[in-house]
Amino acid sequence: MTGARLIVEEYLKTIEEVIATGPYKDDWDTFTDFEVPSWFSRAKFGIFVHWGIYTMPENSNEWYSRNMYIKGMPAYEHHIKTYGNQKDFGYKDFIPVFTGEGFDPVEWIRLFKEAGAKYVMPVAEHHDGFQMYKSSISHYNSWEMGPHRDILGEIRAAAEKEGLVFCTSSHRAEHWFFMGHGKEFDSDIKDPLKRGDFYWPAMPEPDNNDLFSRPYPSEEYLNDWLVRTCEIIDRYKPRILYFDWWIQHEAFRPWLKKLAAYYYNRGIEWGERTAISYKHDAMMFGSGITDIERGKFADPKPYVWQTDTSIARNSWCYTDTLDYKTSKEIIHNLIDVVSKNGNLLLNVGPRADGSIPEQDVKILQEIGAWLQVNGDAIYDSKVWRKSAEGPTKEIEGQFTEACVKEYTKEDFRFTVHGSSLYAFALNYPSNGSIVIRSLAASKDQNLPEFHGIISGISILGFDELPVWSKSPEGLSITTKTVQSDWPVVIRIKMK
Fold first, then answer.
1. Are 414 and 421 in contact (CB under 8 A)?
2. DSSP strand pairing (168-170 vs 119-125)
3. Rounded CA gap, 283 and 339, in Å?
4. If DSSP codes are grouped into helix, strand and coil, which group holds residue 120?
5. Contact 52/288 with Cβ under 8 angstroms?
6. In the chain, what are the domains?
7. Full strand arrangement of the beta sheet holding 433-436
8. How many C-beta atoms lie closer than 10 Å to residue 427's C-beta?
9. DSSP states of 427-470 as a string?
10. Which tens digits make up the pLDDT trace of 240-270?
11. Which residues contact residue 72 at a Cβ distance below 8 angstroms, ignoring those fewer than 6 apart?
12. What are phi and psi of 379, to 5 degrees?
């Protein structure tokens, strides 16, 4: 038995032992007491980081490793034009030049903290199969190759020093088919492939992505996936573990249950509540944190959830054609998500050398400046009885952020924190006059949504005290000097 195979077999035994002795079993019925960690429900805002070999071309997107082997794809044409034929310069040939000379985890974390983030989630391994951490499972990792650094470990150390909670993600589940198209023509991806090879197993890609699409990944691959993920858990102790798609597939279900039981049992050993963030109903509802990619819920939820999105619309990693969002758009999204009991996980894509692009820095600093003034309405906040007011409706579901929302002076979002009710004016009018209809007065105790006693009203970040009054039409607020291109936060202090 080879060294790598022996490690996997021994790890599988350890996994079974941890499951056998801990309260969580590979059975959803044992997850009934799961609770989202309290720090997560208070944090509201985190930073996702996509950085790996796929960034080296700075072209197309983070799926470059797959698309460069599919004839007709822009990445395929770009690769031949820039690097030559795939049989002469394949994806693996980026590894020696992926040195990360601009990677400075201390500067990364300082920037993320300045942006107002409370947790950080670097990608441990993407679909391409290159591990951004020190591993005993495969030699294709950032410690033994490329930068020759434990990227994940260095980010964790820097994050914990600055008080950011360390989390991480694995996108390994898709790797079983991700390089398969390279076998369809004369490339550097050839059979036979065996465990330990960078491209392994490179199976044919399913025709569709439903829950039962075939072919299925092999048992050998699924065991490898389980062990790789448990190694991340044991070595880096992430407080949240995020999974991308494909773990929802039927083939992964037995292994996913084992992984969840192992992770949650380890968390108990550490004295920490841990949680898995998942998409597509991959886990039994109530056993983890529901995540919506590039989208949101239209209404508030009684459970904590998360949306993951990127600072750019068209890629998760840095490319030379990024379509950046504005900081104002991102702040609007943060406000809307938080008002509905959600967290925003915002992705940043460093350049190939590991440096953060100037535009990303600018956007993050602008978000941080707004949160510095208005953070009391975001952090540690809770949902009010109503999350939103106004004519602009949110679209529910994944991948619904293609169009920028244009909010009106009648659009508000709400949160509560301590003795304050916060109203976010998403588009504060230049004349300084607004009416919040959800706070209307009425003699009929059964009609209005609000019967609280207001002791005072102020505008976060402004010295002027507004003039206000209540009527059956709503709470009217008037200011003379409040002007802002950003959302304005009104603090309504209660007796």
1. yes
2. parallel
3. 25
4. strand
5. no
6. 3-293 (3.20.20.80), 388-494 (2.60.40.1180)
7. 433-436, 474-478, 467-471
8. 21
9. T--TT-EEEEGGG---S-TTS-S--PPEEEEEETT--PPPEEEE
10. 999 999 999 999 999 999 999 999 999 999 9
11. none
12. -65, 140
* Helical ranges in 91-242 per DSSP H: 105-114, 151-162, 175-178, 219-236
> Quick one: pLDDT band at residue 2, thresholds 50, 70, 90?
low
DSSP string spanning 17-75? HHHHHSS--SSGGGGTT----HHHHHH-EEEEE--SGGGTT--S-TTHHHHTTSTTSHH
Measure the CA–CA gap between 193 and 186, rounded to whole angstroms: 15
CA atoms of 79 and 74, how far apart (whole Å): 8
Which backbone phi and psi does 165 adopt, to 5 degrees?
Answer: -80, 130
Mind listing the pLDDT tens digit for each residue in 444-482?
Answer: 666 667 888 999 999 999 999 999 999 989 999 999 999
Q: Please, what sign has the CA dihedral across residues 276, 282, 285, 287?
A: negative
212-234 tens-digit pLDDT: 999 999 999 999 999 999 999 99
What does each C-alpha distance from 380 to 72, 292, 429 come to in angstroms? Answer: 49, 21, 28
Please say whether the beta carbons of 37 and 166 come within 8 A. no
Q: Which two tokens stand for residue 371?
A: 């949160």
Q: Which residue has the tokens 């007709």?
A: 72
pTM: 0.97
CB 128 within 8 A of CB 91: yes
Give the C-alpha separation, 489 to 420, whole Å: 12
Residue 155 and residue 108 in contact, taking contact as beta carbons nearer than 8 Å: yes
How far apart are the C-alpha atoms of 112 and 46, rounded to whole Å? 8
Strand partners, 425: 412, 488
